[in-house]
Each structure stands twice: as C-alpha cells, then as structure tokens.
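**User:**
My hope is that you can spare some time for a protein that puzzles me. This is the protein in question:
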Amino acid sequence: MSTLSPESVAAYVQDFECLMEGVVYFLGLEQEIVKQGNIEAIRRHYEQNPEDKLCDIYRPGTREMILCRRSGIDAIHRMALRLVTEAPNACDLSVKRIAEIISERVLQVAIDQVTDDEELVRILKYYVGISETEHVEASYSFPCVLLHCGPNHPDFAPPPPDQFALGPVTFQRFEAFLRNFNEAIQNGSKRAQEKAIDIFSEKGKIYGWVASVSIPRCAPDVSRRRAEEIIEASINLLKVFIGLRYGRSMRLPHTAPTRNRETCVLREIDTSVEWTWQGRSLEGALVAGNLMASVPPCFQDYASNFLNKGLSGNRDETTNRLLDALKWFGDASFEESGGVQIVKWIAALERLTATERIDSGITHRFCKRVALLASGLGTGHVERAYRDARMAYNLRSDVMHGSRSQDDEHLLINAGLVHDLTREAILGALAIHHMLGSAIGNTRIASMAQFYEQSALRHEVLLDKLQQEFRKKAKSKRVSP
C-alpha cells in the first residue's frame, strides 16, 4: 500500500463515501415508505431526480438489490477506472467487470465497518485479483467481406485460394472454414454448443469469408474488442496492399461504417408511379489468384510483425499510431464524398507524422515527413512526394476551413492522388515500425521523431528549397488584391 500516493487513497475514500451516502439516502426513503404505508416518497424522488432510476448495488451473498443514487454508480466507475489505471497489467483489465465486482461486494465493507483508509484500498485491489481469475485466452472467428470470386473458367485468371494468413490472422472461405470446423468436431478437438455453427452459418453464407485470430489471456470483453481491432487492422492492411479501388468493400460487417445498399424506391412522373429496387453490388475485392503473392515478402514480414505486436494490449507508441492510421485509411473507403475521404486520409497521415507539438511550420513538417514515408524513406522521388503532400494538405484544409463543399468535384478528381499518397506513406510507416522495433529496439515517440529528422538530413537542401518556394506562394496570395 505504500506505493499509493495519499492523493490516490483519498480519492478512493471520497468515492466510497459518495456511494455510501447514496445508499444511506435510499434506506431513509424506505423507512419513510414503511411509516407512510405507501411508495409516495420514492415516487416523488424519482420525479425530481429521474437520473437515479435503475441505480442499485447488491447485498453480498444474497444478490438482493440495494437502491442508491446515480452519483454513487458514477463513483463506482471512477474507482474501477482508477484501479485499472494503477495496475501494472492495465491493458488486460476490464473496467466494466471490475465495476460489476465492486457493485456486488463493496457493501460488505460497510457491513464490516472498515474504517482504515488503506484497508479499504486493499479490499478494492483484491477485487482486481478476482477479475483476473476470469481472464481467458480465446480464439475468435468473424464473418467478413473479403474477396469476390470471379468465374472459374480457364479463360480467366485463377480464383483466390480458399485460405491464407496475414500474420496472426487467418482468412478462410466460409465453405473451407465450415469443413475444417466440422472435421475438428468429429475428431474431438473441438466441442460446439448446440446449433452454434448453424447460427454462425447464417452470416457466413451471406458474407463468404471468415477471419480468425487468437488473443492472449485477458479480460473477456477486452479480448473480444482486441480481436476485432486486429482483424480490422489486417483487412485494412490488405486494402493498403491492393488499393481501395479494388478493395473498397472489404470489411467486418458488424463494425464497418458502410451504407446499406439495398433499397426500394417509388418514382412518380406525371400520373405514372413505378418502383425500382437497388440490390447489393459486388461484395469483396476483385483479386485473381493469391493476393499475398503480389505483396513483397519484406512487407508481409513487416505486417506480420506489426499485427503480432497488436495482439497484446501493452503496445508501443509506433504500433498504436499505425493501428489508428490504418483505421482512418479503412474508414475512408466507406465514404461517398471525395472531401470526407481526403479528410480521413490526411488524419491517417497526421497520426503517423505528428510526433510533437510545434507552434509554427506544421505544414512543412507534415509534408516533409509524408514525403519521406511515401518515397520509400527518402530513396525515391522526395520532391514529387513533397509536392503531392502539399496539395493533399491544402485539399483537406479547403474542406475543414469551409472554402469548398465536401462534395466539390475538384476534391473528387484529386481524391485518387491523396489515396495513393496515403497508401505509399502507410507502407513506409510499416517499414519504420519494423526498423524501430527490430533493428533499433526503441519504439518511443521521441525515437520516431528522431528517425524522421535524421532521414530528412540527407535531403535538407531540397526540403529547405521547397519550403521557401511554398512560403513565397502563400505570401503572394495574401498580398494579392
């Protein structure tokens, strides 16, 4: 307990007292109800304080509900969040589950008349240990939209394989998944709940593919969320590899912000009414043969290394930033508006390049670092990448500052340029992630910034020249009538 600061102990005590005040308040109301012989007192309270409705904790051992105030429930969640934040394995703990355990057990502290502050905190820390006994290592399989199967004909390219892997994530056609699953049940290596596979099959048949991943031991709700995150990241990496022109609809259906493309429309012209129906367009990327065969082996290794690091909640800064950038990139694929797509792609690039706060030169820093990423860490056309980054940033500013509508045709025409720039930059970020983690062994944000600046030194003259050029252009625009 000596490792806890007095401020932390005081915060736990304050929250516990807040919870108990709410419980005591309702006990007083219940006594008033008994005296009056009706529930008028509690009815009046709920009319005046509707936020207190459905707020309760439990009497330990009996599961009897004990009413309390909303402020007490909020105090429980503050305690749970603080317990998780202070734990060495915070990333694997569930705030929600610890809050539930507090609700189920904390009244015993009052019943036992615990008055020592540090003893109270020790009991709360014990609840964290209870939650850890429920941690599991689990494998998850989600139906997903992935690859579209073209006609199986010798005049066409061969169809994609029934199964392939990207790091820890395995993708299987639903038919192959079902076949392997049934074989595992028959040989005794798996046991399925009754009708479980039938229920899963309903969605698997619709979407065509299944993505599977195993998550190391952690809280069940954290495990599920992490599995979705890693599978989404792997799908977004596939989109980066092949480009959104082909892989736009690839997704986890239950998490992707895609629009419903099925609708029935009535159209009336003069007195004639007719109906039209719009069904699903082709779902999945149109890729022939083995998708991974076209990806350079080094980038397959980079992606595998990155996704494996993502399996743990205790991630380094470069892994978190790349996960966020991939999500921005993937989310943009579901947007119809070119302007919104550009905003999301620039958000992905900023997440990869903004490593510190600066008061001036933000645009130049952004363009310089994006140029390094998109030019193969400075081995390719740095000047062209810098100019593309400038144009992309200006397009984004046009939308965000209101000078153009998000549906402006100019933005739609140039969305392809921003897409290609972002895609190349993410591939460069994958390489940096690998170098910082494997070669240098230092993935702190400061190391990321230092890597950018050292890489830029080789092109210092060119980058300074480009900065001065665009400064002059910006100045001439400001002074022009």
Notes: The mean pLDDT is 89.
